[in-house]
Amino acid sequence: MVALDHKEPDRVPLDLGGSFVTTINVQAYKNLRRALGLSEKCTLLREQTQSVVVDEDVRQVLGIDTTGLYERPPRPEFERPRSDGSLVSEWGIVYKKVNGLYTPVKHPLAQATLADLDQYSWPDPLAPARFAGLEEEALALRKSDYAVVGNLGWTEVFGMAWYLRGFENFMVDLIARKEFAHALLRRITDHQKARYLKFLEIVGNAIDVILFADDLGGQHGLFISPSTYRKMIKPYHAEIIQAIRSKTRARIMFHSCGSVTPLLDDFVELGVDILNPVQVSAKGMDTLALKRRYGKRLSFWGAVDTQRILPHDTPEGVRGEVQRRISHLASGGGYVVAPVHVVQADVPSENVIAMCQAVWKSGKE
């Protein structure tokens, strides 16, 4: 937590598995455990994400400084593939597995009218199964030396709206069907707020960081203009962040993939403490420039490239990538090393190990 106080620790902290967005694919994890001489056990976080819980033995061997506390799947039957290989989430979104990962192929509100929103079968945000055993787990984790990251699944507002409507439909909604867009965003926000408030009522005093995720950018820019974000999405983000603040002192980590530099002042205004994942392969996400402009107002969590470096470079190249990000982001504190996103199945185990080794070395120079 020293780094998140914008002070320099004895070494830069390392995260792998502390959150839904900084963990590792199941196949890559099996390979990693084998490379470390450990048994091949693994526990899926969720079938839909094909990512895993990082176990204590791996945390110890790799020197990881974080651990995740995860909301439970509310209805496990929604986490099992059907006979045709598809998966239907609790929101009614249909996913198909493509190249080993689930991608949405059917959007349940694609043809919806304003009146249809009242008839839709909305998930129960307070389903007891979501929170089963969390208090006991939180108390145990609080006694550990790890920074504890609180995680709820699928916290998006903007993202959930287009998952339900389809991307093109919701882009049109934001411009031409604003009443419908607001009605949908209102319902999603109320759902997400209720989940956060209950989750934090149980574990708010036991966690150091809380994740809020809503992807707003792609490789080359934002999905929507800054003005549309400020008019249509930001007020709902503000509500959720205010709700989080009312229940915990944990730092708020905002996850948005892509090129989001035009919105960073907005994130600061909302009360965001940490930017994740710092997608360095996206336009304008230059780590040195980000540190110079926002280093006193934001911490950075991530920045180790998962698009090119981790899957395709050598261990030496990975070590160079980590050293570069540390040199750009760690001065004066405010940086946690992590992969830009979930480590995928094609990432060699030696590159994951090299990433961790480079962080250990950073504390010895």
Please describe the topology of this protein.
Blueprint: H1 26-35, E1 44-46, E2 51-52, H2 56-62, E3 66-70, E4 87-88, E5 94-98, E6 101-106, H3 116-119, H4 134-142, E7 147-151, H5 158-165, H6 167-176, H7 178-203, E8 209-213, H8 226-245, E9 251-255, H9 264-270, E10 274-276, H10 287-294, E11 299-304, H11 309-312, H12 315-329, E12 335-339, H13 349-362
Question: Can you tag this structure with a few keywords?
Answer:
365 residues; TIM Barrel; seven-stranded parallel beta sheet; three-stranded antiparallel beta sheet; 12 strands; globular
Shape: globular
Sheet with the most strands, sense and barrel status:
7 strands, parallel
**Low-pLDDT segments, ≥5 res:** none
Helix content: 25-40%
How many domains? The number is 1
CATH class: Alpha Beta
What's the order of the H and E elements?
Answer: HEEHEEEEHHEHHHEHEHEHEHHEH
DSSP strand tally: 12
Radius of gyration: 20 Å
Structural class, from helix and strand content?
Answer: alpha/beta
Overall pLDDT score: 95
Q: List the total number of helices.
A: 13
Could you describe the 3D structure shown?
By secondary structure, this protein is α/β, with parallel strands linked by helices. The protein is 39% helix and 14% strand. It has a single domain, classed as TIM Barrel, CATH 3.20.20. The strands form three sheets. A seven-stranded parallel sheet has the order 3-7-8-9-10-11-12. The protein has a three-stranded antiparallel sheet with strand order 4-5-6, with no helix packed on it. Strands 1-2 form a two-stranded antiparallel ribbon. Helix 5 (158-165) packs across helix 6, helix 6 (167-176) packs across helix 7 (178-203) and helix 10 (287-294) runs parallel beside helix 12 (315-329). It starts with 25 loop residues before the first helix and ends with a helix.
